[in-house]
Design goal:
Length: 706
């Protein structure tokens, strides 16, 4: 048995680093293609782990595994870079592969195979390199553990690196080129030792990729990818460029005489867009004609801000967007003509919820919010009772809150009715009065009794003396506030509220609206949702599911302890590794979803959260390596780990009703990773004592873990 050479350790770290970096970059593309919906996020992880398990199978073949192990140092750049490009291509062209248009909604029957196909390349390489790496480390004490903790350490470093590079504005394409250069450089380190031509080729590849980054080829590649995506989505127009914020990547250009901004596979802003904006501004001013200070929330609301700025009575307009950096970035790429008339508009790069917490009480007369469907936890955080209380606090006594949401046009299914009813019930719990503007794009106006009206003649009279009347005639309000359509829509909501009661209240801790949004997405995918009488919140449900295997593990270990039976069988080792992995992934997803619910998109922070989890895995594996178990009996250590896992789950259960500070998520991810990272190395050591071959132990543990 010999020591773990530092060059080989560096190779294993580079495998973990590139694997996690690739996951972070591809997950951003995945969110773009599938609209950031948590339903597809779960499928992403499932498919990734499935292909990782499958990729371990070919390397279990002795002849192939031994030949690959002999050139392990040079395999990562040879396998990872083509696999990344293939997976990115599959991901970005998944709709074409499925035979669907870009604006068609993927059916669930096509979504699941598409997700599996798109996640295959990197997952297969990950599983293959795990088995090959274990074979190469056969002379270390416990090869599986040696590879596991070094790979986890590299994953943590890679995740931190990709997050920092993206945060400071480096194009994702440059990040990939730089990562490829590092992979190749690590391979080149082995060249002088082995005097291999492969080392020289790896060194040359590293130099070429580094020169490409310095020469700006990654940025040119980013523009090329943006142009291809623009043409795929719009089939025309003039592509102008791309800008990236920590939460999204935006394409912009000209189409049919308008400046259009694209993201998440759709349009997020159209300028000048005055016709739709005029109707929006007119309806809001008719409900609050004495507004002086206005808060506007939404990516596509700049035209509304411009029209509101034409009113002499209005003195201040604050424009906030769900992506805090979107507004200022958009203004930098707008033509000069589209930036005129914005003297009263203040673009504030602050998270909406944070701004409301810090704003003065009674700072605004009117708050206008228009966002997309509440089909994700990121969107749900703007529709909860907690958010509405913050809005009411910043409104003056006679202020009005205007909330856009998806309504119905003659027919309203259970999902659309549930969305509107939940919003109405939640708003009514905060505001004394709520009135409806009906239609496909409906709007609730909430405020004090006597201030609001649903009578078109009253609203038209209010609008008559205002400047917006020149853009939108007051008579048009008879169309916007159709009494028959409004009565029909409100009657459906009231029936749903009478049946659902307080269960329809949407809160941060119980995101009811998110549930309706997910069911609405499922229906559009061609799936008929099952409607039980009651459902736990998604976060509570994850915790409950995670507690089941923990309880089973503890009961089994306790029974063995009670009967004084020594040792743990192979089946029990694999069973415990498998179920501890279920719990670990459950807690990981719980924390990701909880962060989204409280702090918005994980578009950027996904890598850093994975880094904390992976560094925790490294610490847990290292801890097990330092602990000796008398007589080779792992039952004591597994019992302790089971108790620790139960304690962490109980801690998450206690804090699920609280809002954790954003900085606290990283140590929590680290702790969860530390507790979960100890199970596989402990099992690997047990299988080593049972004289399992390294190849067989690695294959069984990889299958069980993934």
């Amino acid at each position: 048995m010999r020591a773990f050479p530092w060059r080989l350790r560096l190779t294993v770290c580079s495998i973990g680093g590139f694997g996690l970096l690739a996951q972070a970059l591809l997950f951003r593309d995945f969110l773009t293609v599938f609209d950031g919906n948590e339903l597809s996020t779960g499928l992403f992880f499932f498919a990734w782990l499935f292909w990782t398990a499958l990729g371990a199978c070919p390397a279990a073949w002795d002849k192939l595994g031994d030949r690959a192990a002999a050139i392990l140092e040079f395999l990562p750049p040879l396998l990872y870079l083509p696999a990344f490009l293939a997976q990115q291509y599959l991901l970005l062209h998944v709709r074409r592969i499925c035979g669907m248009g870009e604006y068609e909604i993927l059916s669930l029957a096509k979504l699941i195979p598409a997700v599996f196909l798109a996640n295959a390349p990197i997952g297969l390489v990950n599983g293959f390199l795990f088995m090959v790496g274990v074979r190469r480390l056969r002379e270390t004490a416990v090869p599986v553990t040696s590879f596991y903790w070094s790979d986890a350490l590299g994953s943590g470093i890679g995740a931190v690196a990709v997050t920092l590079l993206l945060y400071y504005g480096m194009a994702a394409e440059n990040v990939l080129l730089l990562a490829g250069a590092v992979l190749s450089a690590v391979g080149a380190l082995h060249g002088p030792v082995r005097r291999s031509w492969a080392g020289a080729a790896a060194g040359m590849t590293a130099l070429i990729l580094t020169a490409a980054v310095v020469a700006g080829m990654g940025s040119a590649w980013q523009q090329y990818n943006g142009r291809r995506e623009w043409q795929r989505l719009l089939h025309g127009g003039t592509y102008r460029g791309v800008f990236v914020t920590p939460q999204a990547r935006y394409l912009y250009g000209d189409y049919c005489g308008s400046r259009v901004v694209l993201a998440w596979g759709g349009t997020v802003a159209t300028l000048p867009g005055l016709e739709e904006a005029a109707a929006n501004a007119a309806a809001n001013l008719a409900e609050c004609p004495r507004a002086r200070d206005v808060l506007v929330i939404g990516n596509g609301m700049l035209p509304v801000c411009r029209l509101l700025g034409n009113e002499s009575r209005i003195r201040r307009i604050v424009w906030l967007t769900p992506d805090p950096d979107f507004g200022s970035a958009l203004l930098q790429v707008l033509p000069a003509a589209d930036r005129e008339g914005l003297a009263k508009v203040a673009v504030t790069p602050v998270d909406v919820r944070q701004y409301l917490r810090l704003a003065d009480t009674g700072a605004f007369d009117l708050v206008i919010m228009t966002l997309g469907e509440p089909s994700s936890l990121v969107a749900n955080r703007y529709y909860s009772a907690d958010f509405f209380r913050s809005v009411r606090r910043v409104l003056r006594a006679d202020g009005v809150f205007s909330l856009g949401f998806p309504g119905g046009d003659g027919y309203m299914g259970r999902e659309l009715t549930g969305i509107g009813a939940s919003l109405l019930a939640t708003l009514s719990s905060i505001f004394p009065a709520v009135v409806l503007q009906p239609g496909v794009g409906s709007r609730f106006f909430a405020g004090a009794s006597g201030q609001l009206s649903r009578q078109p003649e009253v609203l038209a009279a209010r609008l008559q003396p205002l400047a917006i009347g020149k853009q939108f005639p007051p008579s048009g309000l008879y169309t916007l506030f159709d009494p028959l359509a409004g009565d029909f829509q409100m009657s459906r909501y009231r029936v749903a509220i009478a049946a659902g009661g307080r269960e329809l209240l949407n809160r941060d801790s119980s995101p009811v609206l998110f549930r309706y949004g997910i069911f609405f997405s499922l229906r559009k995918m061609g799936v008929q949702p099952v409607w039980p009488a009651t459902l736990p919140g998604p976060l509570t449900g994850l915790l409950v599911l995670a507690m089941v295997p923990v309880a089973a593990i503890l009961l089994a270990l306790g029974q063995r302890w009670w009967r004084r039976r020594s040792g743990i069988s192979t089946v029990e080792l694999l069973w415990q590794v498998g179920f501890s992995s279920v719990v670990g992934m459950g807690m990981n997803l719980w924390l990701l979803l909880d962060f989204q619910l409280n702090y918005g998109s994980i578009y950027l922070w996904f890598g850093l959260m994975n880094a904390a989890f992976m560094l925790g895995l490294t610490a847990g594996a290292g801890m097990i390596g330092a602990v000796s178990v008398a007589g080779g009996d792992e039952r004591r250590i597994f019992l302790v780990l089971g108790l620790l896992l139960g304690a962490v789950l109980a801690m998450l259960g206690l804090v699920r009703e609280l809002t954790l500070p954003d900085w606290l998520y990283w140590p929590v991810f680290f702790v969860v990773g530390g507790v979960c990272g100890a199970w596989l190395p402990a099992a690997a050591r047990g299988m080593k004592r049972q004289r399992y071959s390294d190849r067989l132990a690695a294959w069984l543990l990889e299958i069980g873990d993934t």
